[in-house]
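STRUCTURE:
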């Protein structure tokens, strides 16, 4: 009996502790994990990962733009990130004459590098726990509103003080653990970042959306940029007088190869995870939100693809838009499946039952019941909101109308908005999407939630099709030349346009019918989650918690490892050029490789050229472009994806099946040399072996 009892205790302790390799850890607190990292093979120290006293690995990692990661690979500001992270910029430089998306782009010297207006890279200077400072002045008699405004005032003071200390600094105070902890993040932001190289999409996006989120994978998903600084090595706006930035640290590159079991870690900026939410929230995601959004996106993707396959110009116009619609669409499919397969709703319910029993005698009593009640209330509103964003808000013409109106109201010219819009606009796609999306909205939103405007228009025109015909023939927004002539004095005309009228009617409906309730309930949910989060940490005293991802710098570690996606299948963790040749098919767009690659392969000797590899590092969106490092901190790869069966790792991590996918750095070097003919770039890199 005693034995059985201790076995049960042991089981509970084990099940409550972190699953192997789960976690996205704050670099400043990495000393708490360093023992485990070293036990798993890491050879360096916590100070090597993050230090404010000396150059450390963190100084070679950047937030690239506002949703990806990049890493420095030379003392000349050379930077690697993913092809899909540079995609929008590569596309902006592309035209039918210079199709850099299709053909690739390689600067043969610094004068050929291309500037990218609006692109920034941010280096983390330091991060600091400022919980006490942020809450200074707080007392328990304050209500939430007072607490929020106190936090705002204190945070503003802290960020102002921080950015006054140097040039090009930016600072944020971020809430961690739902506001149980606050950290100050101070960045140095560089604004002159130039495109140096990108492989053709037939390499950089090889496998396209067919292989996206999949293994075996053979995508050469990288692009190369260079950071420029002023003469003092400080951030500056683009200028031809700027010089390559000299980083405090850059990664050495390892070419000595990897094998299953090797230690790896990923240093980057994961965007968003929800590891600590309730079973109700998980159930909403897996049973309602994901399936509905998947169905809506399937419709849009089919419409876009139909026109893209007919015309190269349309394909270029919609390639970036199509990829971003497809990306979440596929991820949600894996997430829904993964949550159901892991029975996460049941296991969360079981956990909640135990939590409630434990909470009976303490201050967390009732917190879960409160969340359950709030969740039931917010669900229909939130569903209508999500449905609105995935339908009406995807009609491009309405977006243009709204953007133009905003520019005119703010007394700004409309030229940039209009030029950017029409460069990538194909009206037949938008018309078909209009009909599909308005119909879906009408068929899926409860009568009581529907905007009166929608009901009126449907009775006026009799069908969505007729409404669409009328709108597209009467709106001035379909005519680029006319839109370009609009001035402030024309605001009245714009506000009466049927496209603007529709945008405005739906937006007001959202603002008046949904938003106030969603905001009110969300702030109550936020407070309840703050308690529940702290409660979970008190409930499981022995577990080390990591905060949900929020685009702040994190370290995830694990090892190179294959997986078994289903009975009788085992996926090996390393793919090679041989696999690209096996997939090669000139008749299938996603698998049609450049002739040059075929020729190189035909010469022999490259069968074993590594291309991608799998590991158990816990990553998410935003980790794209992150450096993947070996036990010595040398660069072995660039993270770019996860396997779709494991995308529920944003909610629940399964060590058996959650894998990140990285590009082997040796395939990057192969492409630079053999496909790009830009071997000169290798001279500025430093190789560890
Ligand atoms: N799934 C990856 C990520 O979430 C890559 C996306 C880009 N590639 C694509 N085929 N759409 O960013
Ligand atoms: N592909 C993702 C990104 O762009 C990474 C992921 O979701 O694993 O950040």
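SEQUENCE:
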């Amino acid at each position: 009996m005693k034995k059985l009892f201790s076995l049960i205790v042991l089981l509970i302790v084990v099940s409550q502790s972190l699953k192997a390799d789960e976690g996205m850890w704050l670099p400043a607190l990495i000393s708490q994990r360093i023992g485990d990292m070293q036990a798993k093979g890491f050879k360096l120290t916590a100070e090597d990962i993050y230090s404010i006293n000396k150059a450390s690995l963190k100084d070679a990692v950047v937030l690239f733009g506002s949703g990806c990661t990049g890493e420095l690979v030379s003392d000349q500001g050379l930077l690697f990130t993913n092809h899909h992270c540079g995609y929008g910029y590569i596309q902006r430089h592309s035209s039918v004459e210079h199709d850099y998306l299709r053909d690739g782009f390689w600067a043969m010297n610094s004068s050929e590098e291309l500037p990218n207006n609006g692109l920034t890279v941010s280096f983390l200077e330091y991060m600091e726990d400022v919980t006490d400072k942020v809450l200074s002045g707080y007392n328990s008699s304050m209500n939430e509103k007072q607490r929020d405004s106190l936090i705002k005032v204190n945070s503003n003071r802290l960020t102002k003080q921080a950015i006054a200390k140097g040039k090009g600094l930016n600072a944020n105070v971020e809430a961690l653990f739902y506001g149980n902890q606050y950290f100050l993040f101070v960045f140095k932001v560089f604004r002159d970042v130039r495109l140096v190289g990108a492989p053709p999409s037939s390499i950089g996006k090889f496998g396209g959306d067919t292989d996206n989120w999949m293994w075996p994978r053979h995508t050469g998903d990288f692009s190369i940029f260079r950071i420029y600084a002023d003469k003092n090595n400080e951030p500056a706006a683009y200028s031809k007088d700027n010089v390559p930035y000299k980083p405090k640290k850059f990664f050495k590159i390892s070419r000595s190869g990897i094998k299953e079991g090797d230690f790896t870690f990923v240093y980057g900026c994961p965007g968003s995870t929800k590891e600590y939410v309730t079973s109700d929230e998980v159930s909403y995601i897996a049973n309602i939100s994901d399936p509905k959004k998947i169905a809506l996106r399937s419709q849009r993707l089919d419409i876009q693809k139909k026109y893209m396959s007919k015309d190269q110009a349309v394909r270029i116009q919609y390639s970036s838009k199509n990829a971003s619609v497809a990306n979440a669409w596929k991820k949600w499919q894996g997430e829904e499946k993964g949550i159901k397969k892991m029975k996460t709703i049941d296991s969360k319910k079981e956990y909640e039952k135990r939590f409630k029993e434990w909470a009976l005698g303490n201050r967390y009593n009732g917190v879960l019941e409160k969340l359950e009640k709030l969740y039931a209330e917010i669900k229909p509103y939130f569903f209508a909101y999500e449905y609105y964003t995935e339908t009406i808000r995807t009609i491009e013409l309405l977006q243009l109308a709204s953007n133009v109106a905003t520019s005119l109201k703010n007394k700004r010219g409309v030229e940039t908005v209009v030029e950017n819009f029409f460069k990538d606009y194909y009206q037949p796609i938008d018309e078909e999407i209009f009909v599909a999306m308005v119909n879906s909205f009408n068929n899926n939103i409860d009568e009581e939630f529907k905007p009166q405007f929608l009901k009126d228009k449907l009775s006026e025109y009799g069908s969505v099709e007729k409404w669409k015909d009328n709108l597209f023939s009467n709106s001035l927004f379909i005519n680029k030349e006319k839109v370009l002539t609009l001035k402030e004095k024309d605001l009245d005309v714009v506000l009466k346009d049927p496209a603007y009228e529709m945008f405005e009617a739906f937006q007001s409906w959202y603002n008046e019918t949904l938003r106030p309730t969603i905001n009110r309930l969300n702030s109550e949910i936020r407070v309840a989650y703050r308690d529940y989060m702290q409660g979970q940490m008190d409930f499981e005293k022995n577990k080390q918690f990591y905060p949900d991802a929020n685009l702040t710098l994190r370290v995830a570690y694990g090892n190179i490892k294959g997986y078994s996606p289903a009975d009788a299948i085992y996926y090996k963790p390393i793919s090679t050029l041989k696999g690209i040749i096996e997939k090669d098919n000139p008749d299938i767009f996603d698998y049609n490789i450049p002739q040059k690659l075929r020729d190189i392969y035909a010469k022999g000797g490259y069968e074993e050229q590594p291309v991608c590899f799998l590991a158990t590092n816990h990553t998410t969106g935003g980790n794209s472009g992150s450096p993947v490092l070996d036990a010595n901190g040398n660069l072995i790869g660039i993270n770019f994806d996860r396997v779709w069966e494991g995308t529920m790792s944003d909610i629940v991590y399964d060590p058996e099946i959650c894998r990140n996918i990285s590009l082997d750095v040796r395939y990057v070097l192969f492409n630079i040399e053999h496909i790009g003919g830009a071997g000169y770039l290798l001279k500025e890199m430093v190789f560890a072996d």
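REMARK: The longest strand covers residues 181-190.
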